[in-house]
Amino acid sequence: MKNKKVYERNKNPNLSPRKKTSKLSTSNCPSCKQSTPYETSTTPSLRRTSSRLQLQPNLPNTPSYNLRKSRRRAFSPSPSNYLTQSHLFPLQRTPPKIQTRLYRTLLLTKMEAKRRTVRTLVSKLSSVSEPTRIDALCQLRQMSKLDPETRPVIAESGAIPYLAETLYSSSHPSQENAAATLLNLSITEKEPLMSTRGVLDAIAHVISHNGSTSSAAAVQSSAAVIHSLLSSVDEYRPVVGAKREIVYALIDILRCHVSSPPRTIKDALKALFGIALHPLNRATMVQFGVVPALFSLVLKDGRVGIVEDATAVIAQVAGCEDSAEAFWKVSGAGVLADLLDLATGASMRTKENAVSALLNLVRCGGEKVADDVRDVVAFGALDGIADVRNCGSGKGKSKATELLKLMLGSDSNSNSHSNGNDSVVLSSDNGSSFGSLRNHDSD
Any idea where the U-box domain is (predicted)? Predict the structure, then answer.
């Protein structure tokens, strides 16, 4: 009888094949790559409910299927098990305490890996092989630029003395990468840079050899380091201003503006601006010839942004008693008055800086200088001062109002150039405006 049924099933293909019992086979799980048992068929299983047997298919999301699945899992509440079997236990289903432990473990592991990498790269900086040192410098430069978390790690690992020593190297790639790395570190690690012996001397060496042995990119990055250090910490300005070699080298970049790239000139101007914010540094700058160099930029260099930045430094240097004679030698007051003439088409930022420079010059020069300034602004410059008063920024308006009072007398409020609603604000700060600041190196 059995053979007859097999014969009829083989003879008639429409008959369903004989159902086989469910078997468990062992295969490699594609997610965890471990030997995991699973069912190869969906043969119904028996389940006793209400004192009778019912068929329960072994399909997902059914009690019997979930029961078998939960029994097959090897559960351990340790964080390592969650890390190795994250596909079985999603993070959102883990308890909150374990999630916190997991997150902290991952962060510590990530930071420890960064520390090991930085220590390895710093150790390569003392290698005798030049390609090895350059490769380590390139990687430190990229890490300090793209990952701010690595900057304190690099500073703590002792890399700053090696970077400063590399600035004396005759290899231009080494100089460029070391200076760019110092620039990236100066964004957040100012105190380690200033406290490390020899960093300012190394920067002065690079800037002072502009056009000879120093790389142009290294000179630009070194000037940007000075500006970055002085941009937010007032205590560093007298320290950097005492480094006369740095001040003289930055001014020398302005003298060679024809052969210097625009970015190098702008970074040198920003560094000089930060140095001039300390009043005692201005006399040193005037002594080294910063006034002729600045007015030469204003008259001969028409590149975008350079005139604005040069007039910002001029406004700072004008607030010095020694600057009156230097301004008189180069006809500085007349040049500033020409910038205020509406016919020249100067930008509002340039006119605000010119107003600030003339005001500081009158304040520090006395009555004789005030008479000279009145003579030069009488021909066209008054309209420019009034334009700054009406359309300038808050500081520009207050300074233009004060300058008009000094030039025209106390009755200037009734003059056609004045506006009675503007208030005069006398402040000790001689700040002038700069454009956008770049805080890290760019390839």
Answer: 118-408
